[in-house]
Amino acid sequence: MIKVTINGKEITAEKGRTILQIAENNGIEIPTLCYIEEIKPYGACGLCTVEVEGMPKLLRACSAVASDGMVINTETPRVKQSRKIALELLMSDHTGDCKGPCSLNCPAGTDCQGYVKLIAEGKYKEAVALIKERVPLPASIGRICPHPCESACRRKMVEEPISIAFLKSFAADEDLKSDNKFMPEIAESTGKSVGIIGGGPAGLTAAYFLAVKGHKVTVYDAMEKMGGMLRYGIPQYRLPKEVLDMEIDSIAKLGVEMKNNIRIGTDITLDEIRSAHDATLVAIGAWKSSSMRIAGEDLEGVYGGIDFLRSVALKNPVKLGDRVAVIGGGNTAMDACRSAVRLGAKEVYVIYRRTRAEMPAEKVEIDEAEEEGVIYKFLCNPVEIIGENGRVKAVKLQAMELGEPDAGGRRSPVPVEGKFEILELDNVIMAIGQRINISGFEALELTQRGNISADAKTFRTSLEGVFAVGDATNRGASIAIEAIGEAQKASDVIDSYLSGETVGYKKPYVSERVITAQDLADKQKVSRAKMPQRSPEERRNDFNEVNLGFDEETARNEAKRCLECGCHDYHDCKLIRYANQYDVCPERFAGDKHNCKKEQKLVYIERDQNKCVLCNLCVRVCEEDVGKSLIGLVGRGFTTVIKPEFADASVTEFCKTCQKCVTSCPTGALKTL
What we know:
This protein has 673 residues and is of the alpha/beta class. 29% of the residues lie in helices and 17% in strands.
């Protein structure tokens, strides 16, 4: 036996063992990609370097045999820098998708590819469990999300993107209908409590994840029921409140206490909530309609878009006349104009200062509104609301034309001098934006735009122990999935804060590929599933849900259209775990890359040379452990690749049952078919 010291810890070990073996046996991790116990050390990856006192060079722990009295350090700055460079060199030629572009484009980081695959296999409960790792309201969000995931879906280069959002709501609906609904495991109680102000998508999301982590959570909300804008800003025909109620109830069953009709500054103060809890999260949303700052806005019959939709949701809608104009081009404007149609207005206009192509609303919303009779007036902008006896009579519209692109890439509207139009109306609904009501939160530092200032990584505000997320912060109102994504990240930060430290959110590093339509030219074209709907003639007369939902066969067939872009081995990949641990920047070594097609010569095993880092584990396992030598290194220098021998029936049959090369691969370059 010998004695060595690793990171200040004295260890007695068997003579002849390597530094890596001794470290592993004593719970000390030294990163490696090319070592497993069954085969001889190789030292190919260069990650297992350590520093030994008295030795000028770093040693590779997998092959360096320990000697008595060695003093070893595994995490010195020199060692970390060595590993970082080794990883950057490996990643500079590692071309693959860690995650599908759909998941990367989801603000909540949902594993879209994962749950779509589970739906294709008929595993709906498993799909919901995976979705709820990021989104606790999938049936609701799947119905109303503008699905940025789908805009990134590579299937659109074949024909049309996967219907990812509707598949989410399908799986969630199936779970809600079951007698055994998914419920997450809850950690043991931490004895800590969190007060959340705001019961909208952000507040409910944070409540879900903090409760799962074992904290006592209380949600305070000013309205009669929880749900925020999901309840009071999204019409019933898009999101039935019965569905929302079931999802909120599942959060309450985690032990979350929900207090309604509580207004901060009136019923309770921010300081009182801070005193009652170990941490506080502000997620109050943006509930005030933005003003156009034109003459006539104070006339009777002029409403803010958010105020109008809230009155509809409360089943006490404002009185509308026969002719209604909605100003704006976003989804709120679409919700307002379609609600006005359902309330009986005979002529409903949408006034927008750009063209149809520039409207930020979803295309499907624009089209469905038109099907229901909404009239669009493009390239015009209200300059005055004209009244008579204190009430709206008409709106004066300035003709516009498109000029140069603005900061967001849309062409800026420019007035056409001297060209106006008068449009007679009974009501004007201004759906041009939202802002927050800061009443009761004056103690918090604000941005220049009047929103709550919150650190982008830690979500901390100017008050100790107070965090903030969602529409009320920094850049202002956005889509619900953005607020949900922030709230999920904030729950991790608050959890760390309650443990005595604050670890900010850091976007993980991932490997991404650039794919063109030519790369997918061999894919069979399969049309996107069409969501069944009620007819425009029927649906324009009530607030019942427009979409009828996918049946099981349609959902599974739609899910099977997925190209499975992301890596099958992402969650177990050592390479990407180490890359994030050592904060790599492989762009420093940008240059030529291998560009190889996926290979299936072994029939039951797919090889993706683009992901291979030449650790040689598969070759050595096949030779040393299995005794077959069916794969080997070919070429020299940069051109070196790993190739299997040309397969005959006996080889493929053996590989079918063995597959040790697949299980040994640390990067997902090998995949079982």
